[in-house]
Amino acid sequence: MGATGFSEIKMNLIDKTILFVKQQLQNAEGGHDWFHIERVYKNAILIAQEEDCDLTVVKLGALLHDIADSKFHVGDEEIGPKTARNFLESESVSEEIIEHVVQIIKNVSFKGGNFERTFFSKELEIVQDADRLDALGAIGIARTFNYGGFKNRVLYNPSIAPKLNMSKEEYKNSDSPTLNHFYEKLLLLKDKMNTKTGKKLAQERHRFMEKFLSQFYAEWEGEK
């Protein structure tokens, strides 16, 4: 098969995956909906341009990384990988690619920052950076408060300090004020990026969040 034919098959798979993800997430919470996936997908392709990687795996990993987020499925961490596997098997994707994508889904999340990754690949690093970039900057701020509202959490409570170095279970079960999430996750991400492009973009978005927090506290105290 020529290079053109192979490319067309791969694009067809990506198009089918996009349609599948859109259908699966049509009623998703606003910070974890199709538009989140689309932004991560674009970020992943941008980062992949500077990396030696399997672009098909990167695209599939980005598109399927949140296909069934455990926090919206009673904490079930297997439903996402299972859903992705079932879809890819239905499309006759090779077991090698399926297993790689499944491992990306299992290892991409922050999980309190103390989660010990057991799988390593350049493709995982790219998708993880792309996902983390969407938790930073202006969109990261918007998603954080959107999810806080979804969970009916208070914006900020000065008497409740952020909990650092939480275990995976503590992080999963936390119901702390929305602003605490900046310290418990978002502000930690820039130092956990994997790729050169990811690190550069994270620095810029990190600075934007610091400016936002400064303004937030000033307004909270009636200084501005």
What does this structure look like?
The protein is mainly alpha-helical and 224 residues long. The chain is built from 10 helices and no strands. It starts with a helix and ends with a helix.
In short:
With 224 residues, the protein is mainly alpha-helical. The chain has ten helices and no strands.
Keywords summarizing the entry:
224 residues, mainly alpha, globular, disordered N terminus
Please give the radius of gyration in angstroms: 18 Å
Note the beta-strand portion. Answer: under 5%
Instruction: Give the assembly state of these chains.
Output: single chain
Low-confidence segments, ≥5 residues, pLDDT <50?
Answer: 1-9
Number of H/I helices: 10
Number of strand elements: 0
- The helix/strand series, from N terminus to C terminus, equals HHHHHHHHHH
Please give the largest β-sheet: none
- What would you call the structural class? mainly alpha
Q: Note the overall shape.
A: globular
